[in-house]
Specification:
By secondary structure, this protein is mainly alpha-helical. Helix 1 packs antiparallel against helix 2 and helix 7 packs parallel to helix 10.
Length: 329
């Protein structure tokens, strides 16, 4: 690959990775489909399914820049979360929303970590090809639209049911009053959240442990090229009755350690023969990937305050179907 990764290829794939990783449209799917559609040297040089593909190391290496951009964007939140984890370990108790959220993130990340180590190579060599990827991209779009439709119908049913329906729901816990939800023991005073981000984290922290694990496990679907990590986790969060805003925030927090770990595991390959002659291109791609990821997460955290994943679902269906037609007809 030392002579087969141009500066243009590195720049385009780097920017694409940074943007598509957080949008619910599958960054891996686009990294497979775009070179195949362009064809020529792009299809030959940028083949993620090739044995010992250095292109894969390049792509996953970009994950480090993506994860760092997300850490920069959410740095205040990660300081709170890491501090909560540290105090929880020190005191051997889980009392606050930050402590509970920290443990939810840790435990919910375990399933995808194990699945990635076991299944990544198999899925990449068997499925990371243009036609299967285009099919999975269409499926991704269908799933996004289906989840949004179910969420809207559930919200409409709740509105028509009237106030009596609230009696069937679990009681709402006030954030400015003592609560036993987080500790599971005697009442613990919880200070009122000081920001919208803390309010969102406090709501997410009330998720049952099993529900949080299932949301985190939804990231396993992203091992299938064309299925979006953020789309799967946001969709799972919506099915768990989180709002779009809270589901997106939880999805981004869940994705950060996974993306970072995947990048760190592969970035070492670029220090060896696989990186010979392309380290400058890797640096360029990483810078663009980090900038794209930062701008994307900034946009999406605001977008999901009032909008849905339906437009992304439509895009995935159209783009996937068009690529499938291009490759087969």
């Amino acid at each position: 690959m030392s002579a087969h990764l141009s500066w243009l290829e590195a720049a385009v794939i780097g920017a694409l990775q940074g943007v598509a990783e957080l949008f619910p449209v599958s960054s891996l799917g686009h990294s497979i489909l775009l070179p195949a559609v362009i064809g020529g040297s792009w299809a030959r040089d940028l083949d993620v399914s090739a044995p010992d593909s250095p292109y894969l190391a390049f792509i996953v290496g970009l994950h480090v820049a993506t994860a760092l951009a997300m850490i920069v964007y959410f740095w205040r939140d990660w300081v709170r979360i890491v501090r909560g984890l540290g105090t929880s370990i020190r005191d051997r108790r889980v009392e606050t929303a930050d402590q509970r959220l920290a443990w939810l993130l840790v435990i919910a990340t375990i399933p995808v970590g194990i699945a990635g180590l076991v299944l990544d190579h198999v899925f990449r060599t068997l499925l990371a090809k243009p036609v299967p990827t285009a099919i999975f991209l269409v499926i991704n779009g269908v799933l996004l639209i289906a989840v949004e439709g179910l969420t809207r119908r559930r919200a409409a049913a709740g509105a028509h049911a009237g106030p009596d329906a609230d009696a069937l729901e679990a009681p709402t816990v006030r954030l400015d009053a003592p609560t036993e939800v987080l500790s599971g023991g005697a009442g613990v005073g919880v200070a009122p959240p000081r920001s919208a981000e803390e309010e969102s984290d406090a709501r997410v922290a009330k998720l049952p442990l099993l529900t949080a694990v299932l949301i985190g496990a939804a990231q396993i679907l992203a091992l299938l090229p064309g299925i979006s990590r953020s789309g799967a986790t946001i969709g799972a969060g919506l099915l768990a009755k989180l709002s779009h805003e809270d589901a997106a925030r939880f999805a981004f927090l869940l994705a950060t350690p996974v993306i970072l770990a995947a990048g760190v595991l592969k970035v070492g390959d670029l220090a060896g023969p696989a990186g010979d002659g392309i380290r400058g291109q890797v640096l360029l791609g990483s810078v663009l990937s980090g900038v794209g990821a930062y701008l994307s997460v900034r946009f999406l955290t605001r977008y999901f305050e009032h909008r849905s994943m339906r437009p992304f679902g439509v895009y995935c269906i159209v783009a996937g179907a068009a690529c499938l037609a291009w490759f087969t007809l």
